[in-house]
Amino acid sequence: MAGRFVPRTTAVPRQEPGSGAGAASATSRTWTPPGPLDLRLVLSPLRRGPADPAFRALPDGTFWRATRTPAGPGTLRVSAAHGGTVSATAWGPGAQWLLDGLPALLGAGDTPDDFRPRHRLLALTQHRRPGLRLLRTGLVMESLIPSILEQKVTTDEAYRAWRLLVRTYGTPAPGPVGVTFGTHGLYVMPDARAWSLVPSWEWHRAGVDSKRSATILRAVRVARRMEEAAAMDLPEAMARLQLIPGIGPWTAAETLQRSNGAADAVTVGDLHLPGIVGHALAGNRNADDEEMLELLAPYEGQRHRATRLIMLSGHTPARRAPKMTPRDIARL
């Protein structure tokens, strides 16, 4: 079941103080999910660091997201209402597209009941986290570009690069974000053309090496073809993304987990995940990708969900080796 919702959004014209030109009209809708829903667990994979210019989680449980839809830029505000209902408001040319896609974004197409835990740890975590659903944005480039930035660097380096590039070459998000967040408002990521025009020295300043920047430039040249993967089954979508040199299984899986809600997209080639899965399911913190896939085999079709539950269980090995050392290529 996809849940109950108000079939079409209701336009609510209103003037938000300081919201800027073209941002005065807000559109709203509500949706009732078919079961428990934890907005923080569902939406957290979209957050690229604590200062992500395109995503913000507020202490009151409200979530803001700025993105570039097929209809244009849009800002989405989502919060939980009484009785389990979700309330959403959107601004900008992409507002209607975002609200139409709200159920999918919040996991309406996900099938958590298909997951059958074979390990006690996963059974307990599933019981304790009933609100976990796998999101689906329907947008490939939005997740592909930051995933490329995260290749073989520390998360702090990747988050910094994403933050600098989006704030410099993106556009201010429509809606009342200036009032809500002040000078560090939300930004919509650059479109394909804007990415293609980023000068080499700006990639360097953001700490992005030539290999990752070249991969992004190859991807944005065929952005429309990349976006088509959002409507494909997982094997075809994985193959489509990996047609681009520099995009391998790790990057493709990290992207499709978000864009397609791919419950079986396993992140192979990760520095830490095999050891985490091995430790949780077999007591072997030195597991490699091959052993990880063997341990996850009973969950075929739901292997990404299994890894999400493992990460949420808190049963992860203590770090023994030092973290990867950040490289400041801007000073090289």
Automatic annotation (TrEMBL):
InterPro entries in alphabetical order: Alkylbase_DNA_Glycosylase/TA, DNA_glycosylase, HhH-GPD_domain
PANTHER family noted in UniProt: DNA GLYCOSYLASE, DNA-3-METHYLADENINE GLYCOSYLASE
Name by which UniProt lists this protein: DNA-3-methyladenine glycosylase II
Cellular component, GO, one term: cytoplasm
Keywords: DNA damage, DNA repair
EC number(s) stated in the UniProt entry for this protein: 3.2.2.21
The organism's place on the tree of life at top rank: Bacteria
Enzyme class: hydrolase
Gene3D superfamilies given in the database record: Hypothetical protein, domain 2 (1.10.340.30)
Keyword Aminoacyl-tRNA synthetase part of the UniProt annotation: no
Region of interest called Disordered, as start-end residue ranges on this chain: 1-34
Catalysed reactions, semicolon-separated: Hydrolysis of alkylated DNA, releasing 3-methyladenine, 3-methylguanine, 7-methylguanine and 7-methyladenine
The organism of origin for this protein: Streptomyces pratensis (strain ATCC 33331 / IAF-45CD)
BP GO terms, sorted: base-excision repair, AP site formation; DNA alkylation repair
GO MF annotation terms: alkylated DNA binding; DNA-3-methyladenine glycosylase activity; DNA-7-methylguanine glycosylase activity
